[in-house]
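Before we proceed, please read the two lines closing this message. Tell me what the token row says about the fold.
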Amino acid sequence: MIVQPVKKCLGVKDIASMGMSLPASLLVPVLNLEYSHFLDRPDLFAVINDSDPFERMLALLRFYFAKDLKFVAKPPLPPPPPEPRFSNDNNDPSRIRVVYLTEQVSHHPPVSAYYASCPARQIEMQGIDQVSAKVSGTTLRIQAGQYNQGIYVRIQGGPGEGELYHITHPVASVNGILRGNFYLTMSDSTVVSCTNDRPSTKHGGFPRFRAIIEYKEESWLGRAHFLIEGVIFVVHEGETEHEAWTKVKQVPQNRVAAVLDGSWRGHIRWKRVGALSYPHTTSSSASSPNPSHVQLPKPSIPSAAASRADVTTTAEGWQTLIDVNELHVVPKEVRPIDNQHPFESRRLWRNVTDNLLNKEYSDATKEKVAIEQKQRDDAAERKKKGVEFIPTFFEKGLDDGYPELTAEGRKAVEDELAEPSPFCIEGGIGKTN
């Protein structure tokens, strides 16, 4: 059954904009807006705001490698049983809530906006979710769409106040289509940059850190290895040359603070290189994981002409950044369907998902076709009347990479945070809204 849809996609520049309707038997009973959210581990998102700028970059990378855990990790753990406490979730520092809001803001092309917030840790995430897909040879190549500029993580208070992290997306390829044995590989690079709306001198002279994660090309022969190589390096205010660096070897070795390698489907390790990862060489041990580090002299490093590949490291000093094999996807909590807006995904597509779960594929397809036709009719009616589609929760406009919340969007987040929930993150394991 998969062959016919694939044939239709051959030669198409962007499959995502085709508006192709698949039979219900090829679908899974999970709504797209609910599936694509980058919060498979909300606990790792909540701990990004660390006291040390280098540790914040490491925490950001842990969040990045775990954000799409659903593609590589074990199935979700069953939800924890309800606990007999509801009233102090937002006041108890050991119980942290992460709320997530998303909305389709454009139908042609299909584009959605998202916003996540952890008020207790003064951190938020936002961006635009849009992909462009094309059949290339025997693979499906997926990359960020026109309006998808990456993920933006903003720290609004605490140690990292004012910092804005920008995470770009790599390129993904779905392989094994013709054999029906699907597996995902990654290519290109991810760049994690950090800017601040306040001068770094107000942060004690801390440097800015930037990271490049390079996905190694897979061999045509043998099985895929899913390898990555990365580097964390220092960026100084007023400089712009680093903006062109997208490969590890482009980074001068006298800028390197740490290196990392491993498999994005398994274990990733990291190691400090020199003293650049210790911003305060005369500070107290509170800013360093080991008091002896403050006594380390700045190493003699060759000129900037050499690349990271020439930095000598030993087998000692490597530490685990993350091992996704040991992680489970954290289940999410959503409002009961009866409390949802008529156009929220679970409520709108309820009959389709119920039929899919019951394996009533013919009835599921009929319900799906009816919903899609209603959407087409509504769009045609708006066009006829000259009425522009306006999102409810997000401001109009996609060019900035992350549309801001409307007043109704902010109210929706506040209302959700005010809802009692026994499933807050607690002790590193929990359930989010």
Summary: The CA atoms of residues 176 and 182 lie 5 Å apart.
